[in-house]
Amino acid sequence: MRPAEVRAVLDRARPLHGDRVILFLAPGSGRVAAVAGRVVGGAVERNRARRVLRAAWRAVEPRVAPNHDVVLVARRGIRGAKAQDLVTEVGELIERAGAGR
Description:
The protein is an alpha+beta fold. It has helices at residues 3-12, 43-60, 83-97; strands at residues 15-17, 21-27, 32-35, 68-74.
């Protein structure tokens, strides 16, 4: 997703807060973005956080109803987390959003 598209999803969607991730879910074309700000750490930590978020999303994606744009925002607590740790959390956030299949 381009930055303007991410901003549009962030503006339209209601945030769902987890311990390590904030999920923004809005009606759309099925695009996904992983975002990690400086609060997560330096460049290496932010890149790792985005990588882990994308891996967790790949595991959860089949359970999500189509036609939703998703932005996953890393929180400070993501440091040291593995993708398996986030699969459960992201899955619960999707269920809370009511977007599960």
